[in-house]
Automatic annotation (TrEMBL):
InterPro entries: ArsR-like_HTH (IPR011991), HTH-GbsR_regulator (IPR052362), HTH_MarR-typ (IPR000835), MJ1563 (IPR026282), WH-like_DNA-bd_sf (IPR036388), WH_DNA-bd_sf (IPR036390). It comes from Marinobacterium mangrovicola. Belongs to the GbsR family. SUPFAM superfamilies: Winged helix' DNA-binding domain. This is HTH-type transcriptional regulator. Residues 22-80 form the HTH marR-type domain. Keywords: DNA-binding, Transcription, Transcription regulation. The keyword DNA-binding applies. It comes from the Bacteria. Pfam families: MarR_2. GO terms for molecular function: DNA binding; DNA-binding transcription factor activity. The lineage of its organism: Bacteria, Pseudomonadati, Pseudomonadota, Gammaproteobacteria, Oceanospirillales.
Length: 177
């Protein structure tokens, strides 16, 4: 696959951003390549296009599959697996957010809930510390609850909500009056 200068720039930047988000650079670059590709690619094509070792491509594809960002597809007459990415940026966004929630926030919520319960009967933990733990728990529960509500909304509604931006504050202020 020939990459235009724009495609190269996008793929390289996506890899850099991936590493800042805690994702292996090659994993992010492969995702970017598959996202931009008009057709599914096999591992050899990915390896050749990005100049990455075939073993690294295999490992990276497994990680992308575990996130639900890449799926295997087959091409008639070719026994090799081909790989494709979701093309809808909203689908990608919600998949990544859901996976990060499962991997990062859900375990944190579990621990915070345990800490809040333990703190109720713990005379050694200062009241201020108990309050901070509870505030953190409340914040994360509200945030994840909001995310759960948003992901069930129709896409058009979400887009309208985003376009409203700070106007939401004005609408909410008018309701109080």
């Amino acid at each position: 696959m020939q990459l235009s200068p724009t495609m190269q720039k996008f793929i390289l930047h996506w890899g850099e951003m991936g590493s800042r988000w805690g994702v292996n650079r090659t994993v992010a670059q492969i995702h970017a390549l598959l996202y931009l590709s008009n057709a599914p690619l096999n591992a050899e094509q990915i390896s050749e296009t990005l100049g990455v070792a075939r073993s690294n491509v295999s490992t990276s594809l497994k990680e992308l599959q575990s996130w639900g960002l890449v799926k295997v597809s087959h091409v008639l007459g070719d026994r090799r697996d081909h790989f494709d990415s979701h093309k809808d940026v909203w689908d990608i966004f919600f998949i990544i957010m859901e996976e990060r929630k499962k991997r990062e926030l859900d375990p944190t919520l579990t621990t915070l809930r345990e800490c809040a319960l333990d703190a109720e009967n713990d005379a050694q933990t200062p009241a201020e510390t108990k309050a901070r733990i509870q505030q953190t728990l409340d914040f994360l529960e509200q945030s994840t609850g909001w995310f759960d509500q948003v992901k069930r909304m129709e896409r058009g509604t979400i887009i309208k909500l985003l376009k409203l931006g700070s106007k939401v504050q004005g609408l909410l202020s008018k309701k109080k009056s």
